Amino acid sequence: MFIAFEGGDGAGKTTQIQLLRDRLVAAGREVVVTREPGGTALGQEIRNVLLHGDHVAPRAEALLFAADRAHHVATVVRPALERGAIVLQDRYMDSSIAYQGAGRELDPAEVKRLSLWATEDLLPDLTVLLDVTPEVGRARRGEVHDRLEREADDFHTRVREHYLALAATDPGRYLVVDAALPAEQIAALVAQEVQS
Fold it and tell me: Which GO terms describe its molecular function (predicted)?
């Protein structure tokens, strides 16, 4: 099973992934926890360029995320799925569609096509969208750490709105959860969805 966790910066993805991982491991399941960008050595180099480097042109940014995704799926995600593991991933193609498509104002359909090509059409079985407002996300993040977190509120508002629009197009694949709920309550909702 392939489960992606999506949402704006400060939504609580890392916390929820850890809580679900602990639950699944306790049930005797093999779990692979990974992230994009940066789930491989190559991905870590790309992550450093994308998040901690200087300005990256929007199309180049989209291509770099897609390059990381292609390598990551080929070397980490697909092998784990093929051996029967559950993959819990912090960000996947919806992040590119929302951040580079809506946030950077590229064509979201083009960004999606690029990601589908890069992954040979691999979609998660479940995408958990932790919905957070830009204001709450900023308060949770505290100190700004990277280029994307430094973007203005209108950028983060476009990203959030596009995430919600993506979830509305395929409600069977998405679980949308209010990220303002207590972490334990969110974890229970996620676990219930995974078990169903």
Answer: ATP binding; dTMP kinase activity
